[in-house]
C-alpha cells in the first residue's frame, strides 16, 4: 500500500476557503477526498455547482472531491481527517469529532492560532481532547487559499512528532505545484503561524496610514525578532523561524492584500473603527483572535513583544493607530544584535 493510499480517503472538515482549497489540492492528484462543512445550505449549493462560489468563485472541483452530507458517515469512511476551521471553533470541532473516530485514524489541521482564553497551542488542545496516543500533525506555511485552489506553485510544512505520519501526509499532499516539507518542531511551526497574523495587522495599519515601504520593512524585521524571542523562550527551534512556517509565512501575510489580517490593519489605518474594519473584511481574522493570547503567553514567558502589545492596544483599548506606530518606530536606541559576531582572521 502506498503512503498516499494509507491516508486516502481523506475527510476535510471545514468548507471555508482554506479547507476547500486543501481538499481540491489533494483530490487533484487523484486521491479520494470528502469535504464537510457546518452550513447545510452552502454544502447543498457546492454539491449542485461543483464549486465553492462563496469563497473560491469560478474554480471547479476535481472529480475525486466529494461533498459529505453526514459527518459521522464521512468519518467512518475515511482513513485520515484534516481539520480546517477557525481557531475559535477548533476545540468544539474536535469534541464533536472525538466519539466518531477510530483509534487508528490520524488527525491533522491547517488552523493557525491559539485556543481562546487559555492561550494553549492547538497541538496541546488536540492531545487533551483526542488523547496523546493518536498521530497528530500541523499544516502550516506561506499559502493563500485562492492560489492553492488555482493550482499555483506553493510550499507548505507538515509538523508532527510522528515522522511516519508527517511523511505520509506530505506524500498525500505533494503535487507538481505543491511542495510539502516535514519537521518535528511542532511548537515552532505553531508559533510562526500564529504570531505572523498579529504582525500582519501592524503592517497593514502602517501601510493604511501611508507610512511607506521603509516602515513596513522595519515592522516585519522587528516582528521577526519578536517571534524568535518567543520561540526561544518557549523551547522551539530557532531554525524553524527561518523556514516556511516562520519568515516565509510572515513575509506573505504582511505584504499581500489577500491576507485578511493585513486587510484589517489597512482598514484601521485608513480611518475605520475596529468594528467597522472587521465588518469590512467580512471573514475570520485569526490575528485579532490570537493577539491577546500571544501577548499573554509572552508576558508569562517574560518576553518583550512591543509590536504585539501595540496591536492589542489598538484593537482592544482604543489607542490611536498613528500614535502606536510612531511609538514603535521611535523607541529608544539600542544595538540590533544582543551578541554581535566578532570578525575573525583566518
Q: What would your notes on this structure say?
A:
Helices cover 52% and strands 10% of the residues. With 346 residues, the protein is an alpha/beta fold. An eight-stranded mixed beta sheet has the order 3-2-1-4-5-6-7-8, sandwiched between helices. The protein is globular.
Set down the secondary structure blueprint.
Elements: H1 3-6, E1 10-13, H2 17-28, E2 33-36, H3 40-49, E3 65-67, H4 71-77, E4 80-83, H5 87-97, E5 107-109, H6 122-130, E6 136-140, H7 145-149, E7 154-159, H8 163-173, E8 178-183, H9 186-208, H10 212-234, H11 244-255, H12 260-269, H13 274-281, H14 286-300, H15 306-317, H16 321-329
Parallel strand pairs: 1-2, 1-4, 2-3, 4-5, 5-6, 7-8
Antiparallel strand pairs: 6-7
Compressed to H and E, one letter per element, the order equals: HEHEHEHEHEHEHEHEHHHHHHHH
Distance between the termini: 54 Å
How many β-strand stretches?
8
Q: What is the count of helical runs? A: 16
Largest sheet composition: 8 strands, mixed
Q: What is the alpha-carbon Rg in Å?
A: 20 Å
Strand content: 5-15%
What average pLDDT do the residues reach?
A: 94
- Given as residue ranges, the uncertain stretches (5+ residues, pLDDT < 50) are 341-346
Strand order of the largest sheet: 3-2-1-4-5-6-7-8
How helical, in percent, are the residues? Answer: 40-55%
| SS class | alpha/beta
3D shape: globular
Pick out its properties.
single chain, 346 residues, alpha/beta, 16 helices, 8 strands, globular, disordered C terminus
Amino acid at each position: 500500500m502506498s503512503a498516499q493510499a494509507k491516508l486516502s480517503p481523506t475527510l476535510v472538515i471545514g468548507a471555508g476557503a482554506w479547507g476547500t482549497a486543501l481538499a481540491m489540492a489533494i483530490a487533484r492528484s487523484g486521491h479520494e477526498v470528502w469535504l464537510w462543512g457546518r452550513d447545510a445550505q452552502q454544502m447543498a449549493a457546492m454539491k449542485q455547482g461543483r464549486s465553492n462560489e462563496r469563497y473560491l468563485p469560478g474554480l471547479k472541483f476535481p472529480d475525486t472531491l466529494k461533498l459529505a452530507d453526514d459527518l459521522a458517515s464521512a468519518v467512518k469512511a475515511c482513513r485520515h481527517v484534516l481539520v480546517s476551521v477557525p481557531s475559535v471553533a477548533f476545540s468544539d470541532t474536535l469534541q464533536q469529532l472525538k466519539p466518531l473516530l477510530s483509534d487508528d485514524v490520524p488527525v491533522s489541521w491547517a488552523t493557525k492560532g491559539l485556543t481562546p482564553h487559555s492561550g494553549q497551542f492547538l497541538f496541546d488542545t488536540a492531545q487533551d481532547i483526542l488523547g496523546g496516543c493518536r498521530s497528530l500533525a500541523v499544516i502550516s506555511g506561506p499559502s493563500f487559499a485562492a492560489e492553492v485552489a488555482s493550482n499555483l506553485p506553493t510550499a507548505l510544512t507538515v509538523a508532527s512528532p510522528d515522522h511516519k505520519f508527517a511523511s505520509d501526509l506530505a506524500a498525500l499532499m505533494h503535487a507538481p505545484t505543491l511542495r510539502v516539507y516535514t519537521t518535528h518542531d511542532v511548537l515552532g511551526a505553531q508559533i510562526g503561524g500564529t504570531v505572523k497574523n498579529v504582525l500582519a495587522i501592524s503592517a497593514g495599519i502602517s501601510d493604511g496610514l501611508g507610512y511607506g515601504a521603509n516602515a513596513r520593512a522595519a515592522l516585519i524585521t522587528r516582528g521577526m525578532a519578536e517571534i524568535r524571542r518567543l520561540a526561544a523562550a518557549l523551547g522551539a527551534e530557532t531554525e524553524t523561524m527561518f523556514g516556511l512556517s516562520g519568515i516565509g509565512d510572515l513575509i506573505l501575510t504582511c505584504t499581500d492584500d489577500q491576507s485578511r489580517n493585513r486587510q484589517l490593519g489597512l482598514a484601521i489605518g485608513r480611518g475605520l473603527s475596529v468594528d467597522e474594519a472587521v465588518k469590512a473584511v467580512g471573514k475570520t481574522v485569526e490575528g485579532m483572535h490570537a493577539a491577546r493570547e500571544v501577548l499573554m503567553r509572552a508576558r508569562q514567558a517574560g518576553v518583550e513583544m512591543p509590536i504585539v502589545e501595540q496591536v492589542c492596544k489598538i484593537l482592544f483599548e482604543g489607542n490611536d493607530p498613528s500614535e502606536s506606530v510612531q511609538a514603535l518606530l521611535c523607541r529608544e536606541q539600542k544595538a540590533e544584535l544582543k551578541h554581535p559576531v566578532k570578525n575573525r582572521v583566518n
